[in-house]
Predict the 3D structure of the following.
Amino acid sequence: MTGFLSRFGPRRDADPESAPASTGVDRDPVVGTKALKKFIGCLRSRPSPVVLDLGPVVGSNISFFGEQLGCKIFVEDVFADLDRHQREKRLQELPAYLHKRFPQADASVDGILCWDAFDFLDKASAQALADQLSRILGVNGALFGFFGTSRPTESRFTKFVVVDDQNLRHRPYSTPRMRQAVLQNRDIIRLFERLRVSDSFLLQSHVREILFRKPEYPTS
């Protein structure tokens, strides 16, 4: 297992009039997000929050969250794990792997960025991952995820590059893994039975953004 840890100094508010620096022609689409700003808002009041990112390392994202939150960021690339298990034809081992994947202590993380990881997991693997994330998320912590409402036919992962707290650049990259069955709302809520839905947004891009919070007392 590999991880990435970044530590930043005091948070600062973004300049509302400043635009991201141009790096030339970038044809990757920029898509609006409604839940990311709320995710950041949940963590602003916490001193030096700990954030877990399930996607691949994106340097500009680490800088963005560090500047906004003064946080520690751990990157644990679940997409790479899934891709490796797919290529090595060991998908049957993935639930057990995810059950032991995260070394973080119980309730030690303040925020989790799931992106669209659950769209690519079978039922058993999704439950194993959800259980572990619920375990390591602290009380009043926030978990942010995307859940597709339709099933694209192409096989690709997406790097979600933060443009600002209301926009994400979608940067696709190849994988042999196809998206799995579309999760209904009741299925998503059942996965995270120890958490509660704080906000849910259905976007025009056929994606549902959900922000979960971990209550002080069990939900069941």
About this structure: The chain is about 25% helix and 30% strand. Residues 6-25 have pLDDT under 50 and may be disordered. The two ends are 33 Å apart (CA to CA). The first helix runs from residue 35 to 44.
